[in-house]
Amino acid sequence: MRSIERRFNKISQKNQYLSSLVCFERAVKGQNFKKRTIRHWFGRLVEKDDYAQKDKRTILQGLENLKVP
Description:
Layout: H1 3-14, H2 20-28, H3 35-45, H4 56-64
């Protein structure tokens, strides 16, 4: 299940000026990834400098809500 990683890498290569958090959001948006998958790949792909640690829970909840309706 490396489709998030593959999508993330394509987006970040095309948009080198974007932060890893924005690239991750674009990789997840509109897909039906499970919460566990999103949390796992968030920890592996998003740089810790791109968000405040205290905001991590809120960011993850927002990412989980980007599923297709």
